Amino acid sequence: MREITNKSLVSFFCKPSEISLEISNPATGEVIGHIPTQSEAEIKSAIEKSHTAQQSWAKTTAKEKSKILLRWYQLVMDNQADLASIMTQEQGKPLVESAGEVAYGASFIEWFAEEGKRTYGDVIPAPAGDRRLLTIKQPIGVAAAITPWNFPIAMITRKAAPALAAGCSFIVKPANQTPLSAYALAELAKQAGLPEGLLQVVVNHSSKMVGDEFCRNPLIRKLSFTGSTVVGRQLMMQCADTVKRTSMELGGNAPFIVFDDADVDRAVQGAIASKFRNAGQTCVCANRFYIHDAVYDEFVEKFIAGVKVLKIGNGLDAGVNIGPIIDQNAKNNINDLIRRAVDQGAKIAAGGTPLDELFIEPTVLIDVSQDMDIVQQEIFGPVAPLIRFRHDEELIAMANDTIYGLASYLYSNDINRIWTVAEALEFGMVGINEGIISTEVAPFGGVKQSGIGREGGKQGIDEYMVVKYLCFGNIN
């Protein structure tokens, strides 16, 4: 792999063996390393180690926990270039995007290092003079997480930082395509002074085996998952036997709406930023575009012009905007959606040229209708289907016509319309005249089958805490 300045960040590499996991660069197919896997017994042992470590960590003062987390934050930022290089080589996204993700991921560590000092309880006015009532917040215990390959650093820190700040221990199973970033984060946490056993990474060729253990092990009190709705449903059912608390950030099918009073140039910029970041492999990226008939032709012309200048290639190369798709199955699924859309009557207005390896040309589809498969399913690739609309009521019905409810976007300069439509959209997040909405200071999460719970913001740490009610009687 590309030279890494901080050698400790790649110290977890091992020689290839039958039980090691091979990691390759999706842009080139080059094998960049091997990492050891853990057996089921070793994963059980790691969970027990997490349980033991959490008992002491829960007694550590909030101020001391904050100091350690802030040191971790600083080490992540000090090693931003190395972490970005690791991420690009195992995940494929352009280097500038990887560097941005490192900073974004680090922001959650910094944010929750401070929020951990503000986990206030309440004093409750008592119904009787001889009682005093109050609540305190305590860590839930061992928290486990299963994280995806598309944001291999941010999806870990967004969960680990609030868990650790709350006083929990944290054990994560990263995606098998992108475990190197997880191990690098854990190494920096160790260097920051995080006690042993509090942040652990486990991998196995069988993601199902690890997930099953996380769900059924009674020592784990909380499971956080980011991934598909299909898998999320299964994990929730499995967690029912031990009545675990869960938070699920699942699939998305984000509408991107451009009204007739919108600033079209800004809408085009926001659409490109939202749709093509990480080659469209994000859960919040625009999935279907609803453009008002009055500005449809103008938007299409400017949007296609912007799409055509995007550069495809190896994320390590300068000037690349679109990296590879994560694997062949994902590429096949995207190409199949394009083919079916064309069969159902859509036209390719830009892109669509077959490319070698794991690359897909940014593609724009026009003459798209609401009932097409590409509108009803999450694309997770660099494909933009454009749909005309004429009336706000029609638009709202089409936008909400999905089982998903994660992110949505609208462009308008009419404040009345903005309020009305934003309130009517059945999505957990609404970007208004803005295509990039994620930030550590605001809650991230969806409604309907896009999940439960919130990450980030002041709400994020509550996902890892329990409220305990204390009733003092016989007070004279």
From TrEMBL:
Residues 20-469 form the Aldehyde dehydrogenase domain. It comes from the Bacteria. Keywords: Oxidoreductase. The keyword Acyltransferase does not apply. The active site is at E249. GO terms for biological process: gamma-aminobutyric acid catabolic process. InterPro entries: Ald_DH/histidinol_DH (IPR016161), Ald_DH_C (IPR016163), Ald_DH_CS_CYS (IPR016160), Ald_DH_CS_GLU (IPR029510), Ald_DH_N (IPR016162), Aldehyde_DH_dom (IPR015590), Aldehyde_DH_Superfamily (IPR050740), Succ_semiAld_DH (IPR010102). One of its GO terms (molecular function) is succinate-semialdehyde dehydrogenase (NAD+) activity. Belongs to the aldehyde dehydrogenase family. PANTHER family: SUCCINATE-SEMIALDEHYDE DEHYDROGENASE, MITOCHONDRIAL. This is Succinate-semialdehyde dehydrogenase (NADP(+)). It comes from Photobacterium lipolyticum.
